[in-house]
Design a protein that fits this description.
CATH class of the largest domain in chain A: Alpha Beta
Strand order of the largest sheet of chain A: 12-13-15-14-16-17-18-19
Low-confidence stretches of chain A: 1-29
CATH architecture of the largest domain in chain A: 3-Layer(aba) Sandwich
Number of strands of chain A: 19
Largest sheet of chain A: 8 strands, mixed
Radius of gyration of chain A: 23 Å
Number of domains of chain A: 2
Oligomer: homodimer
CATH superfamily of the largest domain in chain A: Alpha/Beta hydrolase fold, catalytic domain
Strand content of chain A: 25-35%
């Protein structure tokens, strides 16, 4: 039996904490369960069988508490109600399955839920909740499936003057197949997120592991980096008086630093036919812009929930890359769009771009994620649809 | 120039956010700088040249705001003062270098700083700040040093009925030296922390990389897992009515699941002479208990800021493992204690245990970290002292 040692300054606090956490096990509605995303043993938030969610916050001195979060969870801020002991609570209408950011607004101050881990979204650490989808497990860790690995690699970017941290998925068996080389998918997050998004919120590693175990997906390396990369302030200041554009240096970082670093560090197939790029929302815009201007570097393109800007014209878009239809179709192995049907403007816009490209004779594909909004369930499904199509001859 | 796409529901919010963040660049005292641990571009908290720190929180509706945090940052909660625009602020006395947890208490509610990343400590996500130590860079990422990797590996624990997630440091060159096998150090966090602590707060990967580049440290694999492992509730409930002990299953998980998993997954030297264990605070207690009861599995032992409980007697401690002095000295390659001189009770207790062992003829070593308390700077320094001593014949 292990002796548990608690530090001299902290023992009582932690023992009280442990007991308090466990003591919260109160009598709860039998058809609800703690969210799987809760910090160990936390009973709230709880997800009902109808996917409604009950949240709680102890704030005896607060005057007004609201629940806020992603549209898949709630369509608008929800007022929470107070009980005499200072516990505020609210139950949402049935939510959309998947991962949703949320937070409490307490007398105007945005506060995370201490019962939740935090995920980087909205430009800050934010609480999140996982809502299960009945019968769906393609993004779950599974016991009977070989597992790849996520590797955290730091590299210094001379272009930005900063250290960057990439997350790299290597497929099952990478360590043992010591001469095998793999194609590479570069995968980008959305605005306000970072290089942990596809791992923590997206569960890309589980999606790849499960696809590889069950179907025709090609083993690949996936490189998950931040899409933010600014030029050093002094450099920007010399060119303009506006604040540094937080993504201005990304294209250069990716082409001149990240790709060479990955190709020298991992056993990649370092050719355009074996290099894909995909991203969501802001990362979709970056993907389209970088790949369509550098078809010498990429042959596979995935755009999730981020169509080109309004005013898209096939003949002029991306400096005319679509003008020579047969050249484009010969060169690009896959131009793939994905969007959730509930993210209405983006979905309509994605569909319109897809249709105009199709009508022009450009080969492309569209995946529609039923009933999901601008949220991670759309992007998990999108990766699950996209990955099996990549790198086949 | 990349086109930055912002999602349909979020563009204005994020643009406003970006501009707001950058606009905070106000006129600041010239001898202070934003903490390196701040989320990109956040100007506060700021660290002065005397290591005082200025914190800010915008909370116009709050009545009372306090800064709280680790003893290396502040010895007691500090009241923050309000300005007419609702900005609360406070400047601390000079702080101790290293990493410190902190948070704001707003009318009794514990709130993280949106300008800070969060680190898992105190059983929850908590803000943190990095205070530089003049002339000290052994835990910094360096350009001219070969880098190892942190690998995130999930494994299912049958003992706890849950997935667990280990972080594994592999040294520079691991991928290329495809037949080399390495000794393994198992490294544990403290109470209220988790398997990310040694990576995010401790920067173990930088400490190893820098040691390997500069000195006689043996290349090793370091396995950084959570020290929490509870038996499934139903199982516990059948044995007692008390809540599940959150660490009760750890010894069994480590010996029966984690070590075999690591030894079959990585190129380890799977013998006691090539297996070390070290931990801090609660993890030190776990280390001493597990290693001293399983000397058939471990030959190297590191106890940081966590001496045995009060009432330590050499002859009876750990079921008499120290009774046969020459047998112990022959068997155990290293018994090493580390503690910060400012964590007074723990330091005194560690020293007393060390001295009584020494007087009994047990070979052991003591490292004293000058001026640091029960905090990560003590443990970074401890790892930096301990690692070079490991695995030499």
């Amino acid at each position: 039996m292990p002796i548990v040692f608690f530090g001299a300054r902290t023992p009582l606090k932690f023992l009280v904490l442990m007991v308090a956490i466990v003591a919260i096990h109160s009598v709860c509605a039998s058809d609800s369960a703690p969210a799987t995303s809760n910090i160990n043993s936390a009973e709230y938030p709880r997800v009902g069988s109808d996917l409604s969610v009950t949240f709680r916050l102890k704030a005896p001195n607060a005057k007004e508490v609201k629940l806020e979060g992603g549209t898949g969870l709630i369509k608008a801020p929800l007022a929470m109600t107070n009980s005499p002991d200072g516990m505020w609570s609210v139950t949402t209408p049935p939510s959309v399955p998947g991962f949703h950011y949320y937070w409490f607004t307490v007398d105007g101050l945005r506060v995370n839920d201490s019962a939740s881990y935090s995920w980087f979204g909205w430009g800050r650490e934010t609480s999140g909740i996982e809502i299960p989808e009945a019968g769906v497990d393609f993004y779950d860790a599974k016991k009977d499936v070989p597992h790849g690995e996520i590797r955290i690699r730091s590299y210094f970017s001379e272009i930005t003057g900063k250290w960057r941290r990439a997350h790299i998925y290597t497929p099952p068996g990478y360590d043992h197949a010591s001469t095998t080389r793999y194609p590479v998918l570069y995968l980008l997050h959305g605005a306000g997120e970072n290089e942990r998004g596809w791992v923590e919120q997206g569960r890309a590693q589980n999606i790849f592991d499960n696809l590889l175990a069950s179907g025709p997906t090609k083993p690949m390396i996936a490189v998950i980096d931040s899409g933010y990369a600014a030029y050093p302030v002094a450099f920007s200041a010399s060119k303009s008086s506006t604040p540094a554009n937080p993504t201005a240096a990304f294209e250069k970082v990716m082409l001149q630093e990240l790709i060479p670093f990955i190709d020298t560090t991992y056993r990649t197939l370092a050719s355009r036919e074996n290099r894909a790029m995909a991203g969501l929302s802001m990362g979709s815009g970056q993907t389209l812009n970088i790949t369509l201007h550098h078809l010498d570097q990429f042959a596979w393109i995935g755009a999730m929930s981020g169509p080109p800007r309004q005013g898209f014209e096939v003949s002029t878009a991306y400096d005319g890359v679509f003008r020579d239809i047969s050249a484009f179709n010969n060169r690009v192995k896959l131009l793939w769009f994905g969007s959730g049907t509930a993210e209405e403007r983006i979905y309509a816009s994605t569909r319109a771009v897809y249709e105009s490209l199709q009508q022009s004779g450009i080969h492309c594909q569209l995946y529609s994620s039923p009933g999901t909004d601008h949220e991670w369930q759309t992007w998990r499904r999108s990766l699950h649809e996209l990955a099996p199509k990549l790198f086949h001859p």
